[in-house]
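Teaching soon. Invent one.


***
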Amino acid sequence: MPDPDYSTNSNRRCERCGAAVSRQFVRVFGFDNTVHGCLNCLTRTQLAVGEAAMRDGGDTDDVARVRWPASGSP
């Protein structure tokens, strides 16, 4: 039996390019069970800063971005 965290189905697809993505990928990089970018259409840097959770073409001023803690902040 395949591992359910890494199996893919037609409901888990990248909204940008349509590539199949795993449940684990959606959990880590997506938002609200949707992913708007994957390794096929975004760079690893773009994934790391949260672009897969943001809709393409949306107004980035209205999007709540993930704030990474700075090394010198309390």
